[in-house]
carbonic anhydrase (Anopheles darlingi), 354 residues
Amino acid sequence: MLIASIWILSVHYGHAQDFGYDGEKGPSHWGEQYNSCAGKHQSPININSLDVKKVNLPPLALVGFDVAPRETNLTNNGHTVVVTMDSEVTPTVSGGPLSGVYEYSQLHFHWGDNDTFGSEDMIDNHRFPMELHVVFFKQEYKSAKSALNHPDGLTVLAFFFEIAPDDSPMYEEFIALLNNVTESHQSARFDTPPTLQDLIADDLVHYYTYNGSLTTPPCSEVVTWIDFKEPILLSHAQVQAFRALQDEHNTPLTHNFRPVQPLGDRVVLYNTDELIKEVDLEKDLPPAVVEDILDTNRIDGAPSASESSASKTTTKRPSSRENGASTIQSYGTLPIVMVLMAVLAVTAARGTAC
Ligand SMILES: *[C@@H]1O[C@H](CO)[C@@H](O)[C@H](O)[C@H]1NC(C)=O
Ligand SMILES: *[C@@H]1O[C@H](CO)[C@@H](O)[C@H](O)[C@H]1NC(C)=O
Ligand SMILES: *[C@@H]1O[C@H](CO)[C@@H](O)[C@H](O)[C@H]1NC(C)=O
Ligand SMILES: *[C@@H]1O[C@H](CO)[C@@H](O)[C@H](O)[C@H]1NC(C)=O
Ligand SMILES: [Zn+2]
């Protein structure tokens, strides 16, 4: 795992280091040196939420996301800031759109000059101020390097950021450490390494997924992208701290996102458990039928919220605020009136969102 992380770093340090985000080394020239960058299944893309295929995939199984690593480093590689971890339990992800188990390699960020843009993928032509990429390689390919030779070699869990009024305590030490890696090739070690779970969003049920590429050279088309709908919240000052980092020419790394690429013949899936939406409130449903619908909506085999926070290997539960049905399930039998209120609330929330 450590070897894999080091290799990913060497992609940035090594043969692919002479790319940038402006001018002659900018994204529009990447294809001249790296054939894949001119491919037909590139990332990022704009996701049109009205043009996705709704699916209800098996739950994502995240293992080791709640285990504090023994050692975590933050490194400025001249293109972004990269987090590598040495952990007793190497985090893995499986399930969802994935076949097989994927092992953690590294995570890094993409941002823009100001809070109006910076994410790579866009949703309905909207850019978020920043995006987190948590990179995994398929375990059977042994390393991130050899995984690049397989179309299902990598998966990236992508999280968008939004600006909140208050600092996120989960990112406190992270942001403070950015001061120690202002210059390219500087590294710093966390005193109290955060868990992966600390750095990502809660709701892991609602996501877009599609097949694409690395968003930096060599742009290999080997990535199953999983873009979570729920953003991570940071304050303006916390996002601003990333813009103080410098590239290898000691110029501020104020933006490091690739422009969106054509979708081409690809389909974007949207995972949701909104079977509950099928309830037709015009009809007077017998309580038994309502219970049946809520039952169908339950994720089979997932531990309850209280079990999952205590165990080392967990299937992360959807957050209660996003998932009325699961909340109801975890509290057991409730008066039918409350069940119907929840159905109404979920339906009403959706109505305002569309
Ligand atoms: C962290 O950095 C130290 C010093 O460069 C290095 O020895 C160690 O292997 C690194 N660990 C990880 C997990 O990247
Ligand atoms: C953000 O940057 C863009 C591009 O440089 C610029 O057009 C825009 O006015 C800026 N917005 C704010 C709010 O500073
Ligand atoms: C970060 O920099 C500060 C100030 O230069 C220094 O005191 C501290 O030891 C550094 N921490 C790490 C983890 O490198
Ligand atoms: C992604 O590619 C795999 C084959 O590697 C295929 O099975 C899967 O259906 C594709 N996913 C989408 C969303 O098109
Ligand atoms: Zn990235």
